[in-house]
Every structure is written in C-alpha cells, then in structure tokens.
Amino acid sequence: MPTTASSPTAPGAGGAPTSAFADVTASDGALRRFLHGLPGVDAVGLEARAASLGTRSIKTTSKAYAIDLAISMIDLTTLEGADTPGKVRALAAKAVRPDPTDRTTPTTAAVCVYPDMVATAKAAVAGSGVKVASVATAFPAGRAALPVKLADTADAIAAGADEIDMVIDRGAFLAGHYLQVFEQIAAIKAECGDRARLKVIFETGELSTYDNIRRASWLGMMAGADFIKTSTGKVAVNATPANTLLMLEAVRDFRAQTGVQIGVKPAGGIRNTKEAIKFLVLVNETVGEDWLDNHWFRFGASSLLNDLLMQRQKLATGRYSGPDYVTVD
C-alpha cells in the first residue's frame, strides 16, 4: 500500500484532514497514480468471502442482540417526491419509538430526508437522541455546480441537519476527473465543519468495477468523509455483501495507515432481518467490534425496520405477529 499520510488525526476522530494527503492530491496525475496504484480487487475471492461469511449461523441470544443492534443502526429513510410534512412526522415518530407496545425497543440512529423536510424532522425527534440526516448536493445524480451543492448543504445544516449524505458526480469519477471529485467532497466537508458529519455516497451500482469502488472509497476518505456509503437506493444495484465487504476492507486499511476511523453505510436493498445480520457478520469479521456501533455503521433503509420488529416480537413472545402488527411507512 502506498504511504501518504504525514499528519494523521487521532483514532476515532472521523474525517481525515486533506492536508495529510497533500502530496497525492496536488494534481490529477498524482491522484490518478495513487488510486490506480492501489491493489487490484480479486472479484472471485471477494464474492466468495462475502458469500461464505453470509452462511454463518448465530445463537438465539446473539440474534436478539443483533436485532436490537441493527434497529439502532438504521437511518430510517423517506426520499420521495410525494413526501409531505405529515409523512415525515410519522416516520420520525416511528424512529423515536419503533414499537409503541415495547419501550425496550431501541430508537433508530437517524431519520433521513430531503433538505426541505429537515426542519420538520428535527422538530419531531427533538430530545430523543435520533439524528436528522439530509441528502444534499443534488441528490441522487450529483449533477450540479459546486456553489449549488454548497448552498444545498448549508440550507440543510441551517435547518438542523446533524448529518449530510452527499453524492459524488459519478460522471466525473468515471471520466477520470478524480481531483474534481476530491475537491468537491473536501468543499462539502469544509461546509459541514464540526456542525454535521459527512456521508459520501458512491452509487456503487454505477461504478462498474470493484476496482472503481476501492478507488472511490480511498478518494472519499482522503477528502474528509466521516462515512462512506454504497448507494442512493435509486438504481437497480445498491448495497451488496461484496461491495460492502470491499468498503469495510478499505476503512480497515485506511485506519491502519492513518489512525483515522471512517464509518460505512450500506443503503438500498436490505429488506429483512436475515440480510441485516449477514451484514453485521461482515462488519464483525472484517473490521471488528470497533465498528459495531451506530456511530460507525448504519443501514440506509425504509422497509428493513418492520421485519426487524416482527422478528423481535417473535423472539419475545414465541409467536410471529405478521405485518399487520407494525406500522406501514
């Protein structure tokens, strides 16, 4: 692995300072040489390992712990053109009290909404500890000028967003304009400052290769991401065990090199408890317990929570209540 960091921040501090990578981000050519110098991905080996880890079975007591952990890691999300204040308030109420019949159920990590719904969500979760995340920067395509993206981010933070989920310009990345993408991420991170954590969305389903996902992961982390995130949930291929495993390996290697811990958020397509637990196994086996916390790992989901609640009720009562016993988002 090329060595670049000269002044890493303390472990657990979040986004890396861009100055630590000044030598490789001085020009497009230098950044390209670094990113294309990363080890190539063995696609067959990656997919085989992800599949193997997905076959692990866990005991009933461990399953109960895993379900509660998964609930606490959810960014409960609504990102539709038909979103209304009423829908956002209802979603926020569910995030704060996922199962009104059982107060031992943990809250979700966050509610994720469009920037114009941040103030509504913020008011609805006040005092609960649930964060408000906002997709900014011309979500989901990321095709806008930097001043527009910065304004989008500033508006969301001013309305109360605790976290910003930004999308990279995949067209620029795929065209090899790595420095342009780096500078945009760094600018959004600077706008966030210490007011909001930054999640950088790659839209892995559009990056075509695992090598590109690895490069995007390092690019995002070097530019200051607090989290790297697979997807918008708006394309055909979203989070998969293989692309999430690859990103977990990237954050592991990044911390080993820089001392900086970065979070990971698979989003889109994770719909049931069995799938969620497979992802938690990936986390435990790849990066360990340091990431088994909602400060460092999240699920971007809307329908996952209901299945987790039904499985939780089944473990508690011995009966499967079914979907009629959970609220419909």
Describe the model.
This protein is of the alpha/beta class and 329 residues long. Helices cover 44% and strands 10% of the residues. It contains 12 helices and 8 strands. It has helices at residues 28-36, 43-53, 60-72, 85-96, 118-125, 146-158, 170-174, 178-192, 210-223, 241-258, 273-286, 304-317, and strands spanning 74-77, 110-113, 131-136, 163-167, 197-201, 227-229, 263-265, 299-301. Helix 5 (118-125) links the parallel strand 2 (110-113) and strand 3. Helix 2 (43-53) crosses helix 10 and helix 10 (241-258) packs parallel to helix 11 (273-286). The longest helix is centred in the last third of the chain and has 18 residues, at 241-258. The chain is globular. It starts with 27 loop residues before the first helix and ends in a 12-residue tail after the last helix. 49% of the residues are buried.
In short:
By secondary structure, this protein is of the alpha/beta class. It has 12 helices and 8 strands. The N terminus is likely disordered.
Question: Which tags fit this structure?
Answer:
12 helices, globular, eight-stranded parallel sheet, 8 strands, alpha/beta, 329 residues
Termini gap: 45 Å
**How many distinct helices?**
12
Main sheet characteristics: 8 strands, parallel
Low-confidence stretches are 1-13
What structural category characterises the helix and strand content? Answer: alpha/beta
Q: Estimate percent helicity.
A: 40-55%
Report strand order across the widest sheet.
Answer: 7-6-5-4-3-2-1-8
Write down the Rg.
Answer: 19 Å
Query: N-to-C SSE series?
Result: HHHEHEHEHEHHEHEHEHEH
How many β strands by DSSP? Answer: 8
Q: What is the strand content?
A: 5-15%
State the shape: globular
| Overall pLDDT score | 91
